[in-house]
Amino acid sequence: MSIRSFFFLLLFAATGARAQSDSLFRLERNYTGPVADFTVDNLGNMYLLYQNGQLKKLLPNGDSAAVFNNVRKYGKVYSVDVSNPLKVLLYYKDFGTVVILDRFLNVRSTLDLRQQQLSQVRAIAQSYDNNIWLFDDIDSKLKKIADDGRLLDQSNDFRQIFDSVPVPATIIDQDKAVYLYDPSKGIYIFDYYCGFRSRMPFTGWVDFKVINKALVGRDGRFLYRYDAGSLQLQQYPLPAFINTASKVVIAPGLLYVLKDASIMVYSYK
Question: Are 44 and 17 within one domain?
């Protein structure tokens, strides 16, 4: 089933008394806690961040592939980027540090952003060309840097572009564009040369993603999908098992739900 069809599936599932038992969703695996966060790469590998500071990589069949036990060396992990399964980025915002891991979760290198005069970096993400995007609060710019901290490209000062400067919590490099999401102001879209393209005023979303050129997010009641081609914003009532989740990741054929410090993996058809 396509991602587009999944959204229509939600509409029907939301009418059921219990989505967990609905034949549209089948529980495939369950990973008990205490899981603090997780993410999924484009190969179907899942990365579980446990409350005790351990990061574990699981193969699509659920087998353990690798473990990283030194997560708390630089404090609390702010984000885990697995856009490239061969290069995992751990970002510690409080310490301005990026730890780069290989596919076996071994440390490849560590980048102290403060030594590069980047003392207040709001968010980071992996770029299409295997470098790093970041938003610099001090300069109010979107920047691209190399793994060693060298500046490769940057946008104009946001204070000169926008009347109200966005404070992005999330950066996503997808479909030949860079998306910055500020939950209070919306989605800001840039090209690969840091040029501003457009803004979408969708606020209050969590689990923001870009899937097949569609902007996706949810709030306390609905899952939203904006199709840039049709310029249509669609909303779908959330089944209870998604509505109360801490985090949700949608993938082709699978739905990952973090709830009560455990992860449930559902297939849908």
Answer: no
Q: Answer for the pair 222, 237: CB distance below 8 angstroms, yes or no.
A: yes
Q: Report whether pLDDT(15) > 70.
A: no
For residues 219 and 257, membership in a common domain is answered with: no
Structural domain count, the chain:
2
For strands 262-268 and 25-31, give the pairing. Answer: antiparallel
CA angle 72, 73, 77 (to 5 degrees): 45
- The CATH number for 167's domain is 2.120.10.30
Look at residue 17 in the predicted model and tell me its pLDDT: 44
CA atoms lying within 13 Å on the CB side of residue 184: 6
Name the strand (E) or helix (H) holding 126: strand 121-126
According to the per-residue pLDDT averaged within each range, which of 8-17, 22-31, 166-175 is highest?
166-175
Number of Cβ atoms within 10 Å of the Cβ of 78: 18
Residue count of the chain:
269
* Whether residue 158 sits in one domain with residue 229: no
- Residue 217 token pair: 């997010």
- Token duo for residue 175: 């479909």
Q: pTM for the full model?
A: 0.90
| 229 compared with 190, residue with greater pLDDT | 190
Rounded distance, CA 20 to CA 254, Å? 14
